[in-house]
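GTP cyclohydrolase 1 type 2 homolog
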Amino acid sequence: MTSSETTVGRLVAALEARYRPAWAEQWDRVGLVLGDPDAVVRRVLCVVDVVDETVDEAFDVGADLIVAHHPLLLKGVSSVAPTTFKGRIVHRLIKGDIALFTAHTNADTANPGVSDALAARFGLRDLRPLSPRPDDPALGIGRVGTLPSPVTLAELAATAADQLPRTAWGVRAAGDPERMIRTLAVCGGSGDSFLGAASAAGADAYLTADLRHHPAGEHLAAGGPALLDAAHWATERPWCDDVAAWLRAEAPVEVIVSDLDTDPWTLHAASPLSTEQKKEPSS
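Structure:
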């Protein structure tokens, strides 16, 4: 783009060349949701979730376009009345002349995509897709790579808590705390459907979000990689930095990344130590 101004339509075209709609899952809803393609864009806000708080932020910073990861209208609705949560947001954005674009599973699949940004937080090398696309094995969901140096699972969990955006959820891990981790699989967002892929990839550990009790337990019982379960928002927030940097280089627009924690979990209380855990170690 060489013009001193750019439009919604031109930015959408660039975004869809990077995150092709054809890469999205059939059930997904991606692309331009709201906005006049001819409207001028001077400021963009990148977010994971389109919720009241991030819409407030868009107004506060004077954004003309929101680039979001999670679709606002993923499931069909019969009304966008302002008395509903989604309808209220739709009305606010239209009245404020703020366009909305979504890149979801197409951004998960892209290379670079959501999981590349997550992998970068751990310095992973020699990346490959966790679940490659059959038609193009360079693309796919998740990434598998090698850590800069081996660490224990306990050390990796601490690193994850430090490197990922802060949330009340934090990071929990499953497996032997002293297990050495050399190869790490990561998947931004809900990833327990790829537990088998993490095992097949030969990973020593798998970091994702929204792991469920039974699938996780059965995976570990079968000898699968150790598990790290982080907050959904935290595993996808790094992508916003990547897409923002790319947009700044692609077009004459200002790009702001939202740091609002939109993870729904807002409080974490750790279980108290047992009597045995409270005892001082013997000398």
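The chain has ten helices and 13 strands.
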